[in-house]
Every structure is written in C-alpha cells, then in structure tokens.
C-alpha cells in the first residue's frame, strides 16, 4: 500500500486507494466538514461509512523527498543510497567526508573526537546540556548530531514557497555546527560549490518514526496519516517531515528519482 502525498493529485490517489472511498464520495461530503470539530473526526466517519480503515500504517510504503546538496549530481546517493550522518562520514568517498578531509577536519567516531589544526575536541554526547555560547556547547552540538540526532529525514510533502528551517538545500546541517566550534566558514564554501537536489525515495512504514503521540492506538495512528492525506488532497501543500528510524539506510534500489531542486531559491 503506497502512501504518497507529495502532490495534491498523489494525495487524492493515496486517500482513495487506502480507504476504498472514491473521490466522488469525498467530494460529495465535503460540505459536511463544518459539522465536525476536527478533520480526523470527519475522515474517520467517511471511511467507516463508505470504506475500510487500513489495519496499520506500518503496512504502508511511504514515498518521500530527501533534500540534499551535491557537486557531482549525487553520485554518492547513486552508489550508496541515502546514508545517515555516521555512515556518510565513515564512508571515505562521500562528498561530506572528502570535503572535511580536504579542509583538515577529522572526526574519530569511535573515540568521540574532532581534530582540527592539531587541536583535539571532545564531541561526546550526553543528556546534560553545557552552557550555551561556550566551546563545550559547540562540541556537544556536534556530538548530538553524530550520536543522537543522526538519522536521515525527509518530507512527505513540501511547502515550496518557504524553505525548511534547517536550510538543508544550502549545506549539510553538521557544517554549521562545525563552523561554530572552529570559527570557520565551511557552510558558505559548500553552498557556493554545491547545488540543491531532491531525492525521491520509498521506505517501509516499519522503518519510520511515528509523527504524533506514541500512546495512540494503531487505528488512531492510521487515521492521523489518512487525515494528513485528506488535508493535502482537499487543501494545499504543506511541510510534513518524516524521520527514518536510527541505523536505517536507504539503499540505491529504493531511490525512485534524483533531480535538481527547482524551488526554495
């Protein structure tokens, strides 16, 4: 079962195929939405009346967009797929690893250190946050990226009028943290030598992080995704982030398309 809400048309196809409720029925009942306090109440009622609720979102195959930057038309992605930060650095011929090596930044993942111009920094991560605007905090930020928040992510749908806050269409976010620690400007150097790309990929529902409260029932989780599809199908595109579970890499065989990014300029 494919869950694809990258466009309004795709969201409509997803909503009808996953629920068995035709587009005509959805359109015929739109006037009733004012009678419901929340959109998910309306969506649930329509599905229970005219169709069938899927048993689990983990049965879905999600299609999503991964926004990145490249100077060689994403050769790394074609060769290795979408790698998380730790694997992207450990793989010695990725663009990120080559770029950091060329600029004298060396990271020892196993021993939690970053070395630059002979200076060794401790980038180990803990839940105890150092005081902001200190070297310790800058080191902690880098460690957080490598040892806690290193999973790959993307977008189930994108609002093309406004860039994602992390500015991933400019440079890898980790470069900003390295710049803050070392007082250098690798981010701008990368931005001016790399172009933004949109990588379309697919992933099993079992390999994504659920985007709402974990204590919801399975039916409530399915309904949340179907309501998301409904809101895109009969509303407008919006930014919806998808997080991949830790230690999951997306193989090249699960990449659908790679093309240059034509929005967020």
Strand percentage:
15-25%
The outline comes out as elongated
Task: Report the sheet with the most strands, covering strand number, pairing sense and barrel closure.
Answer: 4 strands, mixed
Which structural category do the helix and sheet elements fall into? alpha+beta
Overall pLDDT score: 96
Q: Can you tell me the residue ranges where pLDDT is under 50 for at least 5 consecutive residues?
A: none
Count of helix runs: 10
Q: N- to C-terminal separation? A: 34 Å
Helix content bin: 25-40%
> What is the count of structural domains?
2
Question: Largest beta sheet: what is the strand line-up?
Answer: 1-2-7-10
Tell me the total number of β-strands.
10
Give the topology string: H per helix, E per strand: EHHHEHHHEEEHEHHEEHEE
Work out the radius of gyration. 21 Å
Describe it:
- The structure is a single chain.
- The protein has 265 residues and is of the alpha+beta class.
- The protein folds into 2 domains: 2-60 and 202-260, no CATH class; 74-152 and 173-196, no CATH class.
- 37% of the residues lie in helices and 20% in strands.
- It has helices at 8-19, 23-29, 39-50, 75-80, 85-90, 95-102, 135-147, 173-182, 186-193, 218-233; strands at residues 2-3, 61-70, 105-108, 113-116, 119-122, 153-157, 195-204, 208-209, 240-244, 255-260.
- It has a 4-stranded mixed sheet.
- The radius of gyration is 21 Å and the shape is elongated.
- The two termini are 34 Å apart.
- The relative contact order is 0.21.
